[in-house]
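User: I'm designing a mutation panel for Lipoprotein signal peptidase and want to avoid disrupting the core. Could you give me a predicted structure to guide residue selection? Please restate the sequence first so the numbering is unambiguous.

Assistant: Good idea. Sequence first, for numbering, then the predicted structure tokens:
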Amino acid sequence: MPNGLKPKPSFGLFAAPWRWYLLSLVVIVIDIATKVWAVDRFMYGPPLQIVPGFLQFTYAENYGAAFSFLADAGGWQRWFFGAVAVIFSAVVIVWIKKLPAAKRWEPMALALILGGALGNLWDRMLLGYVRDFISVYYGDWHFPVFNVADMAISVGAAMLLIELLFFKEKDEESNKGGAEA
């Protein structure tokens, strides 16, 4: 740093890892709020066409996992997927905590995944199913209906994949360079 100044340590709610946990909380709140809105607006009403022939808001209940996997399994999947989400979330919380404070991309990706996982866990434990409301389709083709938590998980997973494919080597080289200096 110029003039021999050292950066001040960052404390508080916006310091790592708390800023990432806060991002997860924001995802959870937005997810739950939009699900409540969708239930109120679309459970007994017609879908809302956003982009006719491509995107609409509707209401669906998903008793399974992604793409309704195991939706007809008889009820045990609620507890299984709930346990998986709790264990996975604990791992991600620790993972975020152990990341260097200077990292941005990886903890942001993990925070999005964590928020999405906990948003869907909330539904699964409280209701026994996940509320979905975003429908993408074209003609007779329909993508499975999804929600904000699913979007956060998908974006976070894509970010982690990008990190792994394009930036992991740079991180490793910078860590080696810093260790040798």
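For picking mutation sites, this is relevant: The chain has a mean pLDDT of 84. The chain has four helices and four strands.
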